Amino acid sequence: KIRRGRGPSSGKGKTSGRGHKGQKQHGKVPRGFNGGQTRDEVVHGVRGFENQFSVDMKPLNLEKIQSWIDQGRLNPAKPITIRELAKSRCISQVKDGVKLLAKGSEKLTSPLHIIASRASASAIAAIEAAGGSVTTRYYTPASIERIIKGRTDPIHSMQSQISLPVEVPQEQKEYPIRLPDPTGRKDIEYYRDPAHRGYLSHQLEDGQGPSLFFKTPGFGTQVARKTRSKAASAAENRIW
Description:
Blueprint: H1 23-26, H2 40-44, E1 57-61, H3 62-70, H4 82-87, E2 97-101, E3 113-116, E4 118-119, H5 121-129, E5 133-136, H6 141-149, H7 185-192, H8 230-236
C-alpha cells in the first residue's frame, strides 16, 4: 500500500489534496458522519422516489381457488366475488383489490365464474379453457370494506352491464351505498379493454381501441374543413 500525502520528503505527495491535519487528512470518514451528532438520515428521514400511482393488489393463484373448491369452501356454481373470497378466508387484508395469477393453472378443473380487480393473461386463458369466465371491475379500498360487510353490491354499479352465465342470487335487501365506477383515465382505459375482460368493454364499438387519448382512425366526429375561394379571400382583404 502506498502512503500518499505524508510530506514532501516521501516523494509520494506533500498533502495530495487532503489539506493539513485532521481526520480527513490522516484517515477515512464514514459516509454520513456528522461530527458525532445525530445523523441527517435520522433527523430528516430517508427521502426517495414514491410512485403515487402504484396499487397494492392481493395476489390470488388458481391453485388456491381450486383447493378451496375441493374443500367445499367455495361454490363454483355461483359467481365468486371478493365477498365470497373474504368470507371463505381465501384472501385477507385486501387493500386496493385482488389480482388473479396463473400459478397452478394445470390443477384447475372446475369451471368457475369469478369477478376480480385484475387478472393476468395466462390466468384468463386457463379459466376460459376450463369453461369459466373472468370479469375485471373497479374497486376502491372503501368499497371493498363495504362489500365484505354486506353494505355494497359486489358486482353491479351504474355503468356496469355484467352478464354472467350462471344465475346471480337476488338478495331482498337494498344496499345503502352503491358501487363506484372509475374516474381516472388509466382505470377507465384498463376496464374498457376487452383483452382484460373489463366490465366497461361494452362501451366500445367493434374495432375501437380502449384509449381515451389516442383516437382510433374512423371513430369519433370528423370536422369538415371549410375551403374558401381565391375570389372570396381577395374580397375580404379589400381596404375600400
